Amino acid sequence: MARITERLAAAAREAGAGEAVDPAALVAVSLVETDGRSLAAVGARFEPLIRFEGHHFDRLLDGDRRRVARGAGLSHPRVGGVRNPVGQEARWRLLDLAAAIDREAAYASTSWGLGQVMGSHARRLGYPSAVAMAEAVRATVAGQLVPVARFLKLGGLDELLRAGDWQGFAQRYNGPGFRRNRYDGKIAAAYREAAAALGAAEKRQDGGRPAS
Question: How many CB atoms within 10 Å of residue 200?
Answer without folding.
Answer: 11
